[in-house]
Structures are given as C-alpha cells and as structure tokens.
Amino acid sequence: MAHVLLPTDLSDNALNAAVYAVRLFGGEGNRFTVLNTYVVSQGTTIDMWDASDMIVRGFREGLD
Questions:
Q1: How many CA atoms lie within 13 A of 10 on its CB side?
Q2: Is the model's pLDDT at 33 over the cut of 90?
Q3: What value does the mean pLDDT of the chain take?
Q4: CB distance 34 to 8 below 8 Å
C-alpha cells in the first residue's frame, strides 16, 4: 500500500501528473493526498485590498 502525495497548482499539467500517478500506482489499496498551498503576501499600505479570500475561493473551486 502506497501513500502518494499529489501536489497541484490546479493547472492542466498538474492534473495530467495526478492522473498519471493514479494510473501508475492504481487506485486499489493506495492512498492519495492532494496538496495545494499558497502564500498571501501582506500588504504594506492601507490602500491595498486583501485578495486572500478571492484566492482561497478560486483554489477551492479548482479543487472541486
């Protein structure tokens, strides 16, 4: 039994790599973990709007 980490940036290439990994290892008896991370830079001025909610929402929609 393998535990396979599937890092993704939600791009088509990342999806192709994930599909390849599932085909390579097979779904039976193996565990797959999808990992998506992001870093939200902190603005230095009050005039900058916070895009972190928008980024999180976009990643969640991409994972769905």
A1: 13
A2: yes
A3: 79
A4: yes
C-alpha separations of 31 from 2, 8, 21, 26, 27 in Å: 6, 16, 11, 10, 8
Query: How is residue 52 written in tokens?
Result: 């972190």
Number of domains in the chain: 1
The neighbouring-strand residues paired with 6 are 34
Range of the domain at 58: 3-63
Q: Give pLDDT, residue 5.
A: 95
**Six-digit token pair at 26?**
């097979």
**Three-class DSSP category at 10:** coil
Token readout for 19 is 């599909």
Give me the percent of the chain exceeding a pLDDT of 70: 67
